[in-house]
Amino acid sequence: MPPRAQLKPYLTARELQHHYQQAQDTVEARRWHLLHLVDQQWTIKQAAQLVGFNYDYAKDIIRRYNQEGPTGVKNRSQRGQPSPRSLLTPAQQQELQHTLQTPPPDGGCWTGSKVARWIAAKTGKQVWAQRGWEYLQRLRS
To answer: Which member of 16, 28, 48, 138 lies 3.0 to 4.6 Å from 58 by CB, making a disulfide possible if both were Cys?
Structure first.
Protein backbone atom coordinates (compact mmCIF):
# COMPACT_ATOMS: atom_id res chain seq x y z
CA MET A 1 0.00 0.00 0.00
CA PRO A 2 1.40 3.45 -0.86
CA PRO A 3 2.37 5.70 2.03
CA ARG A 4 -0.28 8.17 3.15
CA ALA A 5 0.29 11.86 2.64
CA GLN A 6 0.73 13.91 5.77
CA LEU A 7 -0.82 17.33 6.22
CA LYS A 8 0.79 19.91 8.45
CA PRO A 9 -1.51 20.59 11.42
CA TYR A 10 -2.72 24.04 10.40
CA LEU A 11 -6.35 23.00 10.84
CA THR A 12 -8.22 20.19 12.55
CA ALA A 13 -10.23 17.61 10.62
CA ARG A 14 -13.41 19.39 11.67
CA GLU A 15 -12.09 22.73 10.39
CA LEU A 16 -11.07 21.16 7.05
CA GLN A 17 -14.57 19.70 6.73
CA HIS A 18 -16.14 23.05 7.60
CA HIS A 19 -14.06 24.78 4.90
CA TYR A 20 -15.16 22.39 2.16
CA GLN A 21 -18.80 22.47 3.22
CA GLN A 22 -18.92 26.28 3.47
CA ALA A 23 -16.75 27.29 0.49
CA GLN A 24 -18.56 29.52 -2.01
CA ASP A 25 -16.04 28.83 -4.78
CA THR A 26 -16.43 25.32 -6.24
CA VAL A 27 -12.71 24.98 -7.00
CA GLU A 28 -11.84 25.81 -3.41
CA ALA A 29 -14.55 23.49 -2.09
CA ARG A 30 -13.08 20.57 -4.03
CA ARG A 31 -9.57 21.44 -2.79
CA TRP A 32 -10.76 21.52 0.82
CA HIS A 33 -12.61 18.25 0.30
CA LEU A 34 -9.41 16.67 -1.04
CA LEU A 35 -7.48 17.85 2.02
CA HIS A 36 -10.18 16.59 4.37
CA LEU A 37 -10.11 13.14 2.76
CA VAL A 38 -6.31 12.96 2.88
CA ASP A 39 -6.47 13.97 6.53
CA GLN A 40 -8.90 11.07 7.04
CA GLN A 41 -6.19 8.66 5.79
CA TRP A 42 -7.36 8.36 2.18
CA THR A 43 -4.56 8.00 -0.36
CA ILE A 44 -3.96 10.96 -2.64
CA LYS A 45 -5.06 8.85 -5.59
CA GLN A 46 -8.35 7.82 -3.94
CA ALA A 47 -9.15 11.35 -2.78
CA ALA A 48 -8.24 12.86 -6.17
CA GLN A 49 -10.51 10.43 -7.98
CA LEU A 50 -13.41 11.19 -5.67
CA VAL A 51 -13.21 14.98 -6.10
CA GLY A 52 -12.37 14.81 -9.82
CA PHE A 53 -8.74 15.97 -9.81
CA ASN A 54 -5.82 14.34 -11.53
CA TYR A 55 -3.16 12.88 -9.27
CA ASP A 56 -0.45 15.47 -9.99
CA TYR A 57 -2.82 18.37 -9.37
CA ALA A 58 -3.91 16.79 -6.08
CA LYS A 59 -0.27 16.44 -5.00
CA ASP A 60 0.25 20.12 -5.86
CA ILE A 61 -2.71 21.15 -3.68
CA ILE A 62 -1.31 19.17 -0.75
CA ARG A 63 2.18 20.60 -1.28
CA ARG A 64 0.80 24.17 -1.37
CA TYR A 65 -1.25 23.58 1.77
CA ASN A 66 1.78 22.18 3.60
CA GLN A 67 3.94 25.12 2.49
CA GLU A 68 1.50 28.03 2.75
CA GLY A 69 -1.22 26.78 5.08
CA PRO A 70 -4.89 27.60 4.39
CA THR A 71 -3.87 30.54 2.17
CA GLY A 72 -2.39 28.06 -0.32
CA VAL A 73 -5.79 26.51 -0.92
CA LYS A 74 -7.45 29.73 -2.07
CA ASN A 75 -8.35 30.06 -5.73
CA ARG A 76 -5.66 32.45 -6.98
CA SER A 77 -7.89 33.89 -9.67
CA GLN A 78 -10.35 34.83 -6.91
CA ARG A 79 -7.57 36.58 -4.98
CA GLY A 80 -6.74 38.71 -8.01
CA GLN A 81 -3.31 37.15 -8.37
CA PRO A 82 -2.05 35.63 -11.58
CA SER A 83 -1.06 32.00 -11.40
CA PRO A 84 2.69 31.60 -11.01
CA ARG A 85 2.50 28.90 -13.66
CA SER A 86 0.60 30.88 -16.28
CA LEU A 87 0.84 29.10 -19.59
CA LEU A 88 0.21 32.11 -21.79
CA THR A 89 1.68 35.57 -21.97
CA PRO A 90 -0.79 38.47 -21.82
CA ALA A 91 -0.50 38.83 -25.61
CA GLN A 92 -1.25 35.12 -26.11
CA GLN A 93 -4.22 35.40 -23.75
CA GLN A 94 -5.57 38.26 -25.87
CA GLU A 95 -5.04 36.17 -28.99
CA LEU A 96 -6.88 33.25 -27.42
CA GLN A 97 -9.72 35.50 -26.31
CA HIS A 98 -10.08 36.74 -29.89
CA THR A 99 -9.85 33.17 -31.23
CA LEU A 100 -12.64 32.04 -28.91
CA GLN A 101 -14.98 34.47 -30.69
CA THR A 102 -14.71 32.29 -33.81
CA PRO A 103 -15.69 28.63 -34.27
CA PRO A 104 -12.94 26.10 -33.53
CA PRO A 105 -11.09 24.68 -36.56
CA ASP A 106 -12.86 21.32 -36.32
CA GLY A 107 -16.30 22.88 -35.90
CA GLY A 108 -18.65 22.50 -32.98
CA CYS A 109 -17.99 24.59 -29.92
CA TRP A 110 -14.91 25.34 -27.86
CA THR A 111 -14.15 22.80 -25.14
CA GLY A 112 -11.39 22.50 -22.57
CA SER A 113 -9.64 19.92 -24.74
CA LYS A 114 -9.75 22.15 -27.82
CA VAL A 115 -8.41 25.14 -25.90
CA ALA A 116 -5.70 22.93 -24.40
CA ARG A 117 -4.63 21.86 -27.90
CA TRP A 118 -4.58 25.51 -29.03
CA ILE A 119 -2.38 26.43 -26.04
CA ALA A 120 -0.10 23.44 -26.66
CA ALA A 121 0.35 24.51 -30.29
CA LYS A 122 1.27 28.05 -29.19
CA THR A 123 3.59 27.11 -26.34
CA GLY A 124 5.00 23.73 -27.33
CA LYS A 125 4.06 22.41 -23.86
CA GLN A 126 1.79 19.56 -22.89
CA VAL A 127 -1.48 21.04 -21.61
CA TRP A 128 -4.18 19.15 -19.74
CA ALA A 129 -7.80 19.62 -20.76
CA GLN A 130 -8.54 21.04 -17.27
CA ARG A 131 -6.13 23.93 -17.91
CA GLY A 132 -7.80 24.53 -21.27
CA TRP A 133 -11.18 24.62 -19.49
CA GLU A 134 -9.84 27.13 -16.97
CA TYR A 135 -8.68 29.45 -19.76
CA LEU A 136 -11.95 28.94 -21.63
CA GLN A 137 -13.98 29.99 -18.57
CA ARG A 138 -11.75 32.93 -17.77
CA LEU A 139 -11.52 34.38 -21.29
CA ARG A 140 -14.89 33.61 -22.83
CA SER A 141 -17.01 36.73 -23.06
So the answer is: 48
- Could you list the residue range(s) of the whole structural domain that residue 132 is in? 90-139
Name the pTM for this structure. 0.56
CA atoms lying within 13 Å on the CB side of residue 89 = 4
Separation CA 89–CA 130 (nearest Å): 18
Residue 83: alpha-carbon gap to chain centroid: 10
53 plus 96 within the same structural domain: no
Region for 88 from its dihedrals, namely left if φ exceeds 0, alpha if ψ lies in -120 to 50, beta otherwise: beta
How far is residue 20 CA from its own chain's centroid? 15
Amino acid found at 21: Q
From residue 110, how far is each of 64, 105, 136 by CA, in Å?
31, 10, 8
Give the chain's domain count. Answer: 2
Q: What are the tens digits of pLDDT across the range 22-65? A: 988 888 999 999 999 999 999 999 999 999 899 999 999 999 99
Alpha helices in 9-89 (DSSP H): 13-22, 26-39, 44-51, 55-68
| Same-domain pairing of 107 and 60 | no
| Contact (Cβ atoms closer than 8 angstroms) between residue 76 and residue 65 | no
